[in-house]
Amino acid sequence: MIVNELTMFENDFLYFQQELKNLRKQYPNRFIAVHNGKIIGSEPSFDELKKELEKKELDVSKVVIEFVPEEETFMVL
Amino acid sequence: MSVKWLLSLYLKKKHSWFYEMPIKIPLFKGKSLGFERDMVTFSVRGKNLFLLSRGIVDTGCPFTILSESSLKRTRINYYNKETKYVVFIGTIPLQLKELGECELTFKDEHGNPIKFKQNIHAGIPNIKGYLAEGLPSFIGKDFLNNHTLNIHNKKEGSFILKED
């Protein structure tokens, strides 16, 4: 069960990464939620998106939520 | 659960004095803060806390840190916890707050769950804005040291290995 959830979570994040170029055009500076390989919501703030997902009775702790910056940031850690 | 994994568990228990199966946790290449990095997906279970997360495996980071954007997906009240350290990621000041011991679950190369206990910190940026929102979680050197784990880089991909 947990392994399936981890795999799905990882795949959703990889989907986000693959689509980032297009997402920048569609959702600049917005938060988006990815679940089961689909964009299931987007809002300008995290809290609004969380509320939206909770309304849909989704378990937010298992959903990939990412900010889509208009421009990429480069940082050496 | 695979037959190979069950067999390894059986052999490990029966012949633990000479038979130790290494644990291999595959990493994936994920882009974070502009560059491709070794990342891993895991779950975190603690007191009033459960979430799925992904983190950069960073031997230069002394702590295992959950990002604020990850913690916002839970109901835990992390903001009132005492700040232990203020550190910097790039130019961003980050308050580290202790969340205590949690159970981290990873998946190994055979797709089986592997659990570890680990003290983790919440990483709360002192600034607002898109830079702060994009900060990732980190699997730090403390985690690798506590569980005698090593990072291996191979042509076929990187992984965390526990040999003893």
Folded structure, characterized:
The complex is a heterodimer of chains A (77) and B (164). With 77 residues, chain A is of the alpha+beta class. Chain A has one domain. Helix content of chain A is 45%, strand content 22%. Chain A has a 3-stranded antiparallel sheet with strand order 2-1-3. The termini of chain A are far apart. Chain B is α+β, with helices and mostly antiparallel strands and 164 residues long. In chain B, the strands form 2 sheets. In chain B, strands 2, 3, 4, 5, 6, 7, 8 and 9 form an 8-stranded mixed sheet that branches. Chain B has a 3-stranded antiparallel sheet with strand order 1-11-10. In chain B, strand 3 and strand 4 form a beta hairpin. The longest helix of chain B has 12 residues. The mean pLDDT of chain B is 90. At the A-B interface, helix 1 and helix 2 of A face strand 2, strand 3, strand 4, strand 7 and helix 3 of B.
Give a short summary of the structure.
The complex is a heterodimer of chains A (77) and B (164). Chain A contains two helices and three strands, in the order H-E-E-H-E.
Key descriptive features of the protein:
heterodimer; A: 77 residues; alpha+beta; 3-stranded antiparallel sheet; 3 strands; globular; B: alpha+beta; Cathepsin D, subunit A, domain 1; 4 helices; 11 strands; 16% helix
Tally of domains of chain B: 1
Secondary-structure element string of chain B:
HEEEEEHEEEHEHEE
Structural class of chain B: alpha+beta
β-strand amount of chain A:
15-25%
Question: Topology, pairings included?
Answer:
The complex is a heterodimer of chains A (77) and B (164).
Chain A: H1 2-26, E1 30-35, E2 38-43, H2 46-55, E3 64-68
Chain B: H1 3-14, E1 23-26, E2 28-32, E3 35-46, E4 49-57, E5 65-67, H2 68-71, E6 83-89, E7 92-107, E8 113-125, H3 130-133, E9 137-139, H4 141-146, E10 149-154, E11 157-162
Parallel strand pairs in B: 4-9, 5-8
Antiparallel strand pairs in B: 1-11, 2-3, 3-4, 3-7, 6-7, 7-8, 10-11
